[in-house]
Amino acid sequence: MNIRETIRLAFRSVKVNKMRSFLTALGIIIGVSAVITLVAIGQGASSSITDQIQGLGSNLLIVSPGQASQGGVHMGAGTLNTLTPEDANAISKLRSVSAVSPSVTRQAQLVYRNQNMSATVEGTSADYPRVRSTELQAGRFFNKYEVQGQANVAIVGANVVENLFGDRDAGVIGQKIEIKQIPFTIIGVLESQGGGMTNNDDRVFVPVTTAMNRLFGMTKVNTIYVSALSTDVIDQAQAEVTSTLRIQHNLSTREDNDFSITSQAQILNTAQGITGIMTSLLAGIAAISLIVGGIGIMNIMLVSVTERTREIGIRKAIGATRGVILRQFLIESIVLSLAGGIIGIIIGVGGSQLIGSMTALTTKVTLTPVLFSFFFSMLVGVVFGVYPARKAASLNPIDALRYE
């Protein structure tokens, strides 16, 4: 019997018990669709985070108080705040730096007539839009003269406009809001970002001098954003900023830095590492169901061998070899797992697209997990089909014919 005839018989055997075949393949279907869907969610999250970080600007340096944690990414300053406006001024004079924006942030209550809300108030400089690639929907950002004069002007996010004025499209330029009972004139509205790590929709920006002296009574800044002249001099800029701050803080050669400097590349590498691990973990958990599905196939194939013992005996009696019997049962196992794999791929890809369109989650289906799922499902069919196939092939034809 040639291989084509063996395959035909295998397909016919699978089609005889359609419901049982479907239920047998269900474990593979669930496993494959889960792998593709979870990997799509993980890769979508990774892609979204990458886009947001790249949106920070490839020549951005973030200076934070306190030492850097392992991996070079600052994870919090604790109670020690070591950065000052003078540090920002010193950094702005470096030849490799194009712009500097010191920043202070606090939560504060905003009031407009009978409406109020809590929001993040960030005091910063006139260079902030250039350093952080911030776009305005309406109005303008404050200028250096308003920073120097500690002007009571504010730029508000889209959610602030909606919560205080009832409509994101409300004309709010020139309107006055109160921050900590101090009136501020709105001069600009930020472009809505809709979420993400750089989301400013719930923020209000005011001049850093106004925030430090009039609102919060601060002498230190939380962060200094530094824009290098270009990506080519980012390492030089980081070295110069480090040297300048050590001088500013009177640190001896034996003392560690009391600040940390993080580049966009470092943030990106850390984020990609974390999302990569999470994606692999999710895929691994989902792949377990593929193994369970394979065990299900093996169990059903063993049942099939028992049910078809007399058939196997008859075929052997009329000349079927061990190899022919082994191939047929092995092909049946592969057909079941591949059918489950193909259906699982369709459900996984379709489900991923549906999740992406109906929820806030970003999904990204790539060819790699699809091919992996396809070949892994075929491998499951081979691995878990070998034992039942060998058992069928090793049956003694005389004993098989006597089987009741």
UniProtKB/TrEMBL annotation:
Domain (ABC3 transporter permease C-terminal) ranges: 285-397
UniProt keywords, alphabetically: Cell membrane, Membrane, Transmembrane, Transmembrane helix
InterPro entries, sorted: ABC3_permease_C (IPR003838), MacB_PCD (IPR025857), Macrolide_Exporter_MacB (IPR050250)
Domain of life where this protein originates: Bacteria
Pfam families: FtsX, MacB_PCD
Transmembrane segments: 21-42, 281-303, 324-347, 367-387
Family: Belongs to the ABC-4 integral membrane protein family.
Protein name: FtsX-like permease family protein
Lineage of the organism: Bacteria, Bacillati, Bacillota, Clostridia, Eubacteriales
